[in-house]
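fold-stage: in
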Amino acid sequence: RSGWRLVRVTVERTKTGKYYGYLLYACPMRQPEPVAPVEERTVGLKYSIAHFYVTDDGTSADPPRWLRQSQDKLSAVQRKLSRSQPGSQNYQELVQKYRLLHEHIANQRRDFLHKESRRIANEWDAVCVRSDSLTALAAKTGGGCILDTGFGMFREMLRYKLERQGKSLLLVDRFRPTTKVCSVCGYVNEDLPAEALRWRCPVCGTEHRRERNAAANVKAIGLGRYRTETAAGGIG
């Protein structure tokens, strides 16, 4: 194509013995018209251990069933490996099977993340999400599987897909309280137990679903920050 030039060719060999070639091209790009976030066209996302994420309208995104099935198969292979004699032919075959399954799951997860981030980037003009550290969250909860969800990769996919359309990913400071704050009246429920999935605000009486309420607060904070920085000349 006119204006395109090949910059780099990379060849990679995976642990399963497969080879992949990557072609990096430089090409001219037209700068998209910036889209100003408005409340009706903005969505707030809350990372969820149970659902991957929950939006401010209560929609959740569960990973596909087939991804969970592949993870179950991987666990079964790991159990067999732990009972096998290292160095034996059976052990080597199980190691290769483990590597193939691991690679397959990584590809399935990447496919899910790409499709979900593309759907959101096309559907909304702005996305608000907390800049949570998954490493810190995993250490706090003791859930190492948090690091395997790919939510950090998902945020990056959202960022560049929105950016290419002139849209915004609005990051909210991970230390800003969102779960314990009533998204209707602003009351802070300091006594909210960590295991509580629902709670009622003692001030305005609103009954909240924990993660949906947090997503609503993420959206409000993200939009509020955008408006403040825009007014101050910090954005746009």
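fold-stage: in (second)
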Amino acid sequence: DDLKYDLRIYVLLYGINPMRVYIHEQGIARFATEPYIAPKASNIDNLFMHLTNYAINKTNAVLIELSGTKGGVPADEEESEDGEEGSEEEESGHKRSLNAILKLLYEQGADPDRIMDEIKDIVVKTLIVG
């Protein structure tokens, strides 16, 4: 969608020796609310383009209003302590489930299992360095 995004992958380091790591099946992708253009003097201050924080992007007038939601947040869901909406099952909008992202990538010809294997590899290598 030409939007900058980040992935949140939830990891539990249960033991160090031996290393035991659990990666939650669900994660989320958070999207900026304006199409990404490489940083330059004329757009460097556009937080809606360069940052994916929900607390920032929820104030942008172009935030996609999903059916029955306010700012992408289901009307019956409250924000968490860090200011993020509660629903992670949306397949469109500016906060989507990891499964929705993997489904989209699959539809575009990518291999979701390989992507997840690479993410797991990155997680393990990051923990080993620590």
